[in-house]
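Hi support team,

I've been running sequence recovery on a batch of backbones for a student project. Most finish fine, but this one hangs at about 90% for roughly twenty minutes before it completes. I'm not sure whether the input is malformed or the queue is just slow. I've pasted the C-alpha cells below so you can try to reproduce it. Let me know if you need the job ID as well.

Thanks,
M.K.
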C-alpha cells in the first residue's frame, strides 16, 4: 500500500507504509513533519547530485585541456605543493 504525501501544491510522493512509519519516527524525533523531512532529504540529495555533476564536468574540461596541451605537473612537484600548503595551513592554525 502506498500513501501520497504532498510535496508542493502540485506534487505527491508515494512512500510504502513501512518506510513511512520509519521516516515518521525520525521526523518526529527531529521535530519536523514527514513532508519537511522528505523535502530536506530530497533537497540535500539534489544538491549533492548537482555538485557531483559539476565536478565531473570540470574533470572532463581538465582532461580535454590536457589532451590539447599535454601540460602536466609531476607527482613530485604536486607532493611538494601539497606539503607547502599543509605547512602553511598548520602555521595559520597555530597562530589562531
Amino acid at each position: 500500500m502506498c500513501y501520497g504525501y504532498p510535496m508542493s501544491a502540485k506534487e505527491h510522493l508515494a512512500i510504502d507504509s513501512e518506510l513511512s512509519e520509519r521516516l515518521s519516527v525520525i521526523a518526529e524525533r527531529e521535530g519536523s513533519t514527514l513532508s519537511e523531512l522528505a523535502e530536506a532529504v530530497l533537497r540535500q540529495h539534489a544538491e549533492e547530485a548537482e555538485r557531483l555533476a559539476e565536478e565531473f564536468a570540470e574533470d572532463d574540461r581538465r582532461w580535454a585541456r590536457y589532451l590539447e596541451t599535454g601540460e602536466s605537473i609531476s607527482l613530485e612537484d604536486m607532493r611538494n605543493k601539497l606539503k607547502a600548503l599543509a605547512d602553511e595551513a598548520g602555521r595559520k592554525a597555530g597562530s589562531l
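--
Follow-up from support: It reproduced on our side and the slowdown came from queue contention, not your input. The radius of gyration is 23 Å. No action needed from you.
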